[in-house]
Amino acid sequence: MVLLYKSIEGLNFKFALSMWSNDYKCQKIEWNTKVTITMSRIPPQSCAKKWLKPLVAPFCDIRTFSIDERKGTCTITGFAQSVESIPDHVNLGMSYPHEHGTNIKGFKINMHTAPLYDPQDNESADPGKQISSVHRNN
Length: 138
Prior knowledge:
single chain, 138 residues, mainly beta, two-stranded antiparallel ribbon
C-alpha cells in the first residue's frame, strides 16, 4: 500500500505521486561479519584506496588497509555480509593513454578472505584457537 499524495493525469496516462522515503523499495543487508581480505597480483600503481575501494565496495567496506609492496599484496579489514559473500577474485581495468588512443589492461586480482579475529570482541576466547579461512581456487 502506498500513500497517494497527488496524481497527474493526461491523455492516456495517470501518474501517482507519493511522499518520498529513503526506504522506498530498499533492501537492507546487514554487514556485521568482520573480515580480512588479502589481495594479490595487484599492479603497483593501483595500490591506493581510490583503486581498492571500487573493487571491494560491493562486498565489503574498508576500515583499514595496508600495502606490502615487497610481496605485492594488500590487506583490507572491514565488515561484510559473510566470508562466503566475497568472491575469490575481481577484475581491475586500467587505462593507459597514448598518442594514438588508449590501451585498457585487465588485471585479475586474487582475494583470500578470512574471518577477522579481534581479541577485544571476546576477551575470554582462546587466542590460540585456529580460525579457518576461505580460499577458493578457480
